Amino acid sequence: MDKISRRDMTTAFAALLAVLALGATGYMLIEGWGFLDAVYMTIITLSTIGYGETHPLSDGGRIFTIALILCGIGVAAYAFSMMNALVVGGRLTNALRRKRMQAEIKKLENHYIICGGGRAAQTIGAELSRIGRPFVVLEKADEPCRRMEERGWLVLQGDATEDRLLAQAGLPKASGLFLCLPNDKDNTYLALSAKITARKDLRIVAAQVAEEAGTKLLHSGADALVNFGYISGMRMASEMVRPATTGFLDSMLRDARSDYRFEDVEVKAPDGFTLSELMAGGDQQWPVIVAVKTAEKGYEVNPEGSRRVLPGQTLVVLGSQAQTANLRRKVSA
User: Fold this and answer.
1) CB 244, CB 298: distance < 8 Å
2) Phi then psi for 297, rounded to 5 degrees?
């Protein structure tokens, strides 16, 4: 339930309890009944069941009963309608589902957090879901949250800039943070705030709306920026001058039947090895090594088989998820 629903529910049941207490107290004082008889008479009066009087009423008791009916039945009807909305309307189901969802989120480690629920955020979520990476989405609006929950995603509804919500999403244990809020100001604040509470190796990728916001986002802690205007322009130019290449890359991302991806594979084996040694064991078992990235020289594209890779260097590969997983296991040994 959202905050408004909880407030309405609390108000309705508080009013119902107040009327029950008032009715029971009135019968105890006016008629001298015991507590159980007084409560029973109040409930059958408010529920309009019509079982009759528990004991014969005095004139004062009848006047009190009339007042109780006039004042209390409306309160009881409102409380019962709220209870019906809670159960029949699905609010109870939603509350239980979100409680289970929060329990699942607490178990996550090395996951990703997506701040925002717009089209970019949902595209990120679809890709992470497709390649089997755990993630949580933080979004304020009801409708995007509903759509993402229907897809089976882990969603927390609220303001992504609040430290409380980031903590619920497991920021201290997350390995990546996507900043997809609709304005640079909030994304900049989030980048700065996350670096304070997150682990040191957290990677932050931020959407950049205005050209002049890039420097601020990087200084605030973002590791990479995506300028939608620039990316869109480059994509349109590529569609015009290199349609086959663009179509090939597009098919990997959009074809649900394809699990081929460009991936990063970090070398962790202490002694390193040549690429020929690495790829021994059958061409179908390994992905294609497109480039080697080093801190000193950047990218070395189409490296030779004699090229020796060392711990800390990164391989840029193209292959299926299974092929890439095989390579990751080998370079981590």
Assistant:
1) no
2) -110, -5
Residue 317 is given by DSSP the state E
pLDDT of residue 50: 63
Contact 145/155 with Cβ under 8 angstroms?
yes
Per-residue confidence (pLDDT) for residue 277, from 0 to 100: 85
CATH of 93-232, one of 3.30.530.20, 3.40.50.720, 3.30.360.10, 3.40.50.300: 3.40.50.720
pLDDT at 51 over 70: no
CATH of region 259-332, choose from 3.40.640.10, 3.30.70.1450, 1.10.3720.10, 2.60.40.10 = 3.30.70.1450
Q: Are 321 and 131 in contact (CB under 8 A)?
A: yes
**Shortest CA distance to 126 belongs to which of 233, 310, 243, 255?**
255
209-266 tens-digit pLDDT: 888 899 999 999 999 999 988 899 998 999 999 999 998 888 887 777 778 889 999 9
Flag whether pLDDT at 7 surpasses 80. Answer: no
Q: What is the residue extent of each domain of the chain?
A: 3-89, 93-232, 259-332
Tokens 């640079």 found at? 184
329 contact partners, CB below 8 Å, separation of at least 6? none
One of 3.40.309.10, 1.10.287.70, 3.40.710.10, 3.10.450.50 is the CATH number of 3-89, namely 1.10.287.70
Calpha distance 279→275 (Å, rounded): 6
Distances, alpha carbon 305 to alpha carbons 35, 269, 280, 302, in Å: 90, 18, 11, 9
Take residue 115 and report the two structure tokens written for it. 């701040």
Q: Which amino acid is at 307?
A: R
Q: Given this model, what pLDDT does residue 1 score?
A: 46
Burial of 289 per CB tally in 10 Å (0-12, 13-18, 19+): buried
Q: What angle do CA 40, 42, 43 make, to 5 degrees?
A: 65
